[in-house]
Design brief:
2 copies of one chain form a homodimer. Chain A is α/β, with parallel strands linked by helices and 244 residues long. The first copy, chain A, is built from 8 helices and 13 strands. At the A-B interface, helix 1, helix 4, strand 5, helix 5 and strand 6 of A face helix 1, helix 4, strand 5, helix 5 and strand 6 of B.
Chain lengths: 244, 244
């Protein structure tokens, strides 16, 4: 197909955390769409583009606007923070694709916060891990609760996305209580990373008991180790099982 | 600290799937270490480096050799396929770090197969997901079994790493049987991606029942959808929950 819509993961923020392929795609397109906060991060690097920016909670309108531009013959990229797939726009774009049969969808992966945040802390996700989003805008809280329990029962390491927002300031505390009730020790090793890959990046390590009583903001990603996770030299490390 | 050891995720294979930051680090170092298969992929792009290559099952020797070079004052990068953290070398490096107190460890994230493979198939990991490795070299099979069960109980999407090897040709079949016994439908939507980001890349979608009876090779990553995952236009798509 000649008409193309790229869904591009731009990584945590700075353009140097994009892949070469993502950069080439963005250079090659006519139009870049995305959530305003993310398009603002890269606007200066691509001065000659047309832009489709929309605010929060306008996700489907944004995807549809990008498809419509592509359908007119423009080469379009829709950018997502982190990866294009992980809590990104690849999914709604693929769901809308049957409405635009002449447009080919191409997904370009990026570094998701689980990986970029883990690198700041050390190696917390070095064994089987899962991601859980605490946002209940699109997911019933009962499903989130079930997943937190299952993650503890399976002794997975975890990356917790969307741990807080203005309306959900106590969700991380609730999540910690669920994990503790599911059998996680209050000594379980955890971490928080703020502003991954952006100005003000900072990581801290703490226990699950301490995490329960810590307020995090919406620019944070939270990490919960498995039962073997250690703090070594101030770094959060999940052993893979080698004899060291 | 002036002495530095970088642990660098090089993504799925081609250098264009590395981040700009990973590329800059590799250009800046004196010495690049890694598993021979991975260093061979990038050797031509960095002609002026010293190399520390070792074969399979020599992971700790490789990490230690990189630390020793860094301790002599060389700037060293240890490369990993995919991400540096996810089943990568960041963890053993962080475990060894206390033996080399003058060497600063810096982890540089890369695109893990969960994300790069998902992009080939569509958007299979667009809701909470987990990764499970079927390799029992370092993990007891009972732990792997427990995690597969927990992943189904929590209705996570899944990326299955190391689904097969010469000695473990029936492990994926065993894993599918565990997931089916834990309540997953044989109609659950799944996918396989081979040679992600390399020559011969190919993805197929199929059901869990079909996956059970499919032989995959060691260059494959397997995806298992959650109970809502669909096949749309031949693409594997997990809805995020938007009204489309």
């Amino acid at each position: 197909m000649e008409k193309k819509l790229y869904v591009v993961g731009m990584g945590p923020g700075h353009v140097d955390m994009m892949t070469g392929r993502a950069m080439e795609v963005l250079k090659s397109v006519d139009t870049i769409g995305g959530y305003t906060t993310y398009t603002d991060l890269i606007r200066d690097f691509f001065p000659d583009k047309e832009w489709i920016s929309t605010g929060m909670r306008k996700e489907i309108e944004r995807c549809r606007a990008c498809f419509e531009e592509a359908n007119k013959g423009k080469k379009v990229a829709l950018v997502c923070s982190g990866d294009a797939g992980v809590y990104g726009m690849a999914s709604p774009v693929e769901e809308l694709a049957p409405e635009f049969p002449e447009v080919e969808v191409i997904v370009v992966a990026g570094i998701t916060a689980a990986c970029s945040g883990a690198a700041v802390l050390g190696a917390p996700l070095s064994h089987d891990f899962c991601t859980v989003s605490l946002s209940d805008l699109l997911t019933p809280w009962e499903v989130i609760e079930k997943r937190l329990q299952a993650a503890i029962h399976g002794d997975f390491c975890m990356a917790i996305y969307n741990p807080s927002s203005h309306k959900r300031h106590d969700y991380l505390q609730k999540a910690c209580d669920i994990m503790l009730a599911a059998g996680a020790s209050p000594d379980r090793k955890c971490g928080i990373v703020r502003n991954i890959g952006r100005e003000g990046e900072e990581g801290i390590v703490l226990t699950l008991g301490e995490l329960r009583d810590t307020q995090v903001d919406m620019f944070s990603t939270v990490f919960v180790g498995n039962s073997n996770t250690k703090i070594i030299n101030g770094r959060l490390v999940t052993p893979r099982g080698y004899s060291i």
